[in-house]
Design brief:
The complex is a heterodimer of chains A (about 550) and B (about 325). Chain A is of the alpha+beta class and about 550 residues long. Chain A has helices at about 1-10, 15-35, 65-70, 120-135, 140, 180-185, 240-250, 265-270, 305-315, 315-320, 355-365, 390-405, 415-425, 440-445, 470-480, 485-500; strands at about 45, 75-80, 85, 90-95, 100-105, 145-150, 155-160, 205-210, 215-220, 235, 255, 275-280, 290-295, 330, 380-385, 405-410, 430-435, 505-510, 515-520, 520, 540. Chain B has a two-stranded antiparallel sheet. Chain B has helices spanning about 5-35, 40-45, 50-60, 70-80, 95-130, 135-150, 150-165, 185-220, 225-230, 235-275, 280-290, 290-320, and strands at about 85, 90-95. Classes of the chains: A alpha+beta (about 550), B mainly alpha (about 325).
């Protein structure tokens, strides 16, 4: 199965439906054999913070939504920890040699929670009507898809205007949930009554959402993976106060919390308890990177030597150890080291050298900003990401680091809407800290920060540095349509070295989140989506 | 005074509240326009970035491409038929969202009002009776400490002691989400979840009522009518219960009415510490998301609540003190 998928990914035209059916049956037999080994039953309580605004992952990708809905909806594919596709609702897929046709063979006998069958018509509707038109990231992910053809109920053929290998990484139940056409196809999907009453094919059925309290999901007895899920129920609780969340985990009233739901400073105390454990796995398809975005249209930040100097000034190890309690890894460029197994990682200019402070001072002298009588070269404002306390500490640490090289930084902390407007609409900033996800592929998460076509006033989390160059644009455009991962790797390594050289964005570190898990439960984090997985394999000890 | 006079009074007061509530709505609407950033950017931000087409599409859907006065006119026109609009962030009608939160809010507020009034008045009464003894000092110092301690800290300490160390009560939430009790067991379960938040929220208010009650009792006891009653040959106990206590209660009732509004605000902290699904948390979240339809709905509902409670307080006056006339 694995090799079949890999061959398909490389663009070899493989259309052996028979083989995939046989393999599919083999997988089913294997899963039911394992099923007997696990203890069924039990309620898992997950803490999600903050409460999701709605349960409509096809129109909104607000972080908390997927933590709930990924249990309700399946995707065409699933992924392993090396970010290789595995069968999901699609038993197999094949990419044509020109990369412009992708054929999915769908699983037979899958039903939605309302009992209606899942067919290729649902795939067609989900991609063309729901995600391509309304999903905040789907608009770009499926940009090249011109049609989804459905020759029969179990075949969906994606027709593309240009090859889009990155699309194959965005077909999980979290990123591209498969919707029932007979439900979401009726009425306006943007204000659909089922926005808060999701119906999918996933291992858990939506039962109830009591706002401000919890979402209750019960076992789907007709789930297509025989013997799964093991748990009877998943309840997702919403607790606004961080100390209370820690207390709830300590008392065992909840069993799993991730993605910043547990404050970093509570992790050490909680993991000292015999009932709890911590993991940093399960964020490989997100790969958040802490960065500082520089307004390259504004003097003195239009000088790349100034930007490099700022990058040299930041002590990445100190930041990780003292602000993020050791959770993190120094970044070597825009692409996260999580892409190393996929061959897409590249290390750029090294800003953590032993003589980094001297080099920063030298660069600033060369750029024409000598120290004045008071030792200050120039002043700047650092807008801190308004996502909580760590970011304020990060601001304070960088303030001191910049002072060492003669830059006097003033810190500013605003609320989220005001900050978004300042950075992405008004461009009224010098330097802002931020963290962006690499997502499942650099095309989806990395290009947006410095491609010229992403300099878009009013669009959030794109190229606020307003920097681009014809060479880097060309590299990204080539990597977007290149389906050979070795060739993509070469393109990306060149890109990374050019981007770190210019430093429109200063990459500080790869953020890792601690997920706290009650040891009563096993196999909760079994995909690179982590808490955005579906818990089909989770079971009690 | 007949019952019909009271009814007429209540109807007139209710009519008077209409312009007040409308004024509150218009003022809130205009004030919220001053906040920078809008729901469309927040939604796009939550999405981790979105194309400009998406943001424009959102603004158009929210009616934000219209001039402010047109938006205000539309809002008021819908309000007249109790249509509070749609929360695009929560994908649900505002009225539904509010009504679902109203029950837990009233439960917590009601329990708090009851406990803080009962305990506060009792503490004040006893302190006044034992004035300038060590018992009075103990009560007064306790009241000051309750008053001065931050609510979130009291809440966390109660969780630490009664939930984690002693394991008597649940940490947070409104009911057990593993058991999902039904019937009477559910009532007991909700009651158990209500204990800690109510105590926490009551601490602050009972301290206030105790101080007020003590001062008011002492003041009343020095008045001429007490001397008259004593001369009439009434026993001290009768004087206290029939005369002094009733009169001393008036300022406390006034205060409780005024405090009712701030009880909503105070509960934001308690609601978030105990994960109680009330209106306070909803207001807090919607402010930071610039979900103005929802926020305006909450303001409207709280304005209505405060107005109604103050009317109730005025009616209670009449019952407590027959000399107070309505009209």
């Amino acid at each position: 199965m694995e090799t079949h998928m890999q061959m398909a990914l490389r663009g070899t035209s493989v259309r052996t439906t028979l083989r995939s059916i046989v393999l599919g049956a083999g997988v089913a037999a294997l899963t039911s054999a394992v099923a007997f080994a696990q203890k069924p039953g039990g309620t898992l309580v997950q803490i999600t913070q903050p409460e999701p605004p709605n349960l409509a992952p096809y129109v909104s990708t607000a972080g908390p939504i997927g933590q709930v809905t990924a249990k309700v909806f399946d995707g065409l594919l699933e992924y392993d920890f090396n970010l290789k596709p595995k069968p999901g609702l699609a038993e197999s897929f094949a990419v044509a040699a020109d990369g412009k046709t992708v054929t999915f063979k769908l699983r037979r006998g899958v039903t939605f929670h309302d009992g209606k069958p899942f067919t290729s018509a649902d795939v067609q509707f989900t991609i063309m009507e729901a995600l391509k038109k309304n999903h905040p990231r789907g608009i770009s992910t499926f940009k090249e898809v011109t049609a989804v053809e459905t020759p029969d109920e179990t075949t969906a053929i994606f027709k593309l205007a240009k090859p889009a290998p990155y699309m194959m990484m965005a077909l999980s139940g979290y990123e591209s949930p498969m919707l029932p056409k007979h439900v979401y196809g009726a009425g306006d999907i943007k204000t659909h009554p089922n926005a808060n009453n999701p119906i999918g094919t996933g291992p858990f059925k939506f039962v109830e959402w009591r706002r401000g309290e919890f979402v209750r999901l019960d076992k789907n007895p007709t789930y297509w993976r025989a013997g799964r899920p093991f748990l009877d129920r998943v309840v997702v609780r919403f607790i606004a106060d961080a100390s209370t969340r820690a207390a709830v985990l300590e008392k065992g009233e909840a069993h799993i919390a991730g993605f910043g739901a547990v404050p970093y400073n509570a992790v050490t105390k909680l993991t000292a308890l015999p009932s709890l454990e911590v993991t940093t796995k399960g964020y490989e398809m997100m790969s958040p990177v802490v960065e500082m975005v520089v307004n390259t249209k504004k003097a003195p930040f239009d000088n790349h030597k100034v930007r490099q100097a700022i990058s040299f000034a930041v002590d990445r190890k100190f930041v990780i150890d003292n602000v993020w309690f050791g959770f993190g890894k120094a970044a070597r460029g825009p692409i996260s080291s999580n892409f190393e197994p996929a061959g897409l990682f590249g290390a750029g200019m090294d800003f953590s050298t032993a003589d980094r402070v001297d080099r920063a001072n030298k660069l600033l002298d060369e750029a024409g900003f000598p120290r004045k009588a008071d030792g200050v070269r120039f002043e700047m404002v650092h807008d801190m990401t308004p996502y909580g306390e760590e970011w304020q500490r990060f601001g304070e640490v960088t303030q001191q680091a910049l002072a060492q090289v003669g830059i006097k930084a003033t810190l500013r902390y605003e609320d989220v809407p005001k900050w978004l407007k300042r950075i992405y609409t008004d461009y009224d900033f010098d330097v802002t800290s931020n963290f962006l996800y690499n997502l499942a592929d650099p095309v989806l998460g990395v290009h947006r920060s410095f491609h010229s076509d992403r300099i878009r006033k009013g669009t959030v989390f794109v190229n606020a540095a307003q920097w681009s160059s014809p060479e880097t644009d060309a590299l990204m455009d080539k990597a977007t349509v290149e389906s050979d991962s070795a060739k993509r790797g070469v393109l990306y390594r060149e890109l990374v070295s050019k981007v770190t050289e210019a430093s429109p964005v200063i990459y500080v570190h790869e953020l890792t989140f601690p997920t706290i898990i009650n040891k009563q439960f096993k196999d909760l984090i079994d995909t690179p989506l982590g808490i955005y997985g579906n818990y089909a394999n989770a079971h009690r000890q | 005074m007949g019952g019909s006079a009271l009814a007429r009074y209540i109807v007139r007061r209710l009519l008077q509240t209409i312009p007040v509530v409308l004024g509150v709505v218009v003022l809130n609407f205009l004030l919220l326009q001053l906040a920078p950033g809008d729901l469309a950017t927040v939604l796009a931000g939550e999405a981790g970035g979105a194309p400009k087409e998406y943001i424009d599409q959102l603004r158009q859907r929210f009616g934000q491409d219209q001039p402010i006065l047109v938006q205000l006119y539309n809002y008021l026109r819908n309000l007249l038929v109790l249509d509070l609009g749609y929360s695009f962030r929560q994908s649900a009608p505002v009225l539904d969202l509010l009504l679902k939160r109203l029950g837990p809010t009233l439960l917590l507020m009601g329990a708090t009002l009851l406990i803080s009034l009962l305990v506060g008045v009792a503490m004040g009464l006893l302190a006044a009776l034992w004035v300038r003894t060590w018992k009075d000092n103990v009560i007064s110092v306790a009241a000051i400490i309750f008053y001065a301690t931050p609510l979130f800290w009291i809440g966390l300490m109660l969780i630490l002691v009664f939930s984690i160390k002693l394991d008597w009560l649940p940490t947070s939430g409104m009911e057990d989400v593993v058991a999902f009790n039904e019937g009477f067991a559910r009532v007991v379960d909700i009651g158990r979840h209500l204990v800690l938040p109510t105590i926490t929220l009551s601490m602050f208010y009972l301290a206030l009522y105790a101080r007020l009650m003590r001062a008011s009792m002492l003041e009343q006891r020095g008045l001429d009518y007490v001397t008259t009653a004593r001369a009439k040959g009434l026993r001290e106990r009768q004087i206290i219960t029939r005369h002094v206590f009733r009169n001393a209660l008036l300022p406390v009732v006034t205060m409780a009415g005024i405090q009712f509004g701030s009880l909503l605000g105070g509960s934001v902290v308690v609601e978030s510490v105990f994960a109680w699904p009330g209106l306070g948390q909803l207001a807090y979240q919607s402010l930071f998301a610039r979900d103005f339809n929802l926020l305006l709905g909450i303001f409207f509902l709280s304005a209505c609540l405060v107005v109604i409670v103050n009317l109730v307080v005025d009616v209670i006056y009449v019952l407590l003190d027959p000399r107070i006339r309505i009209g």
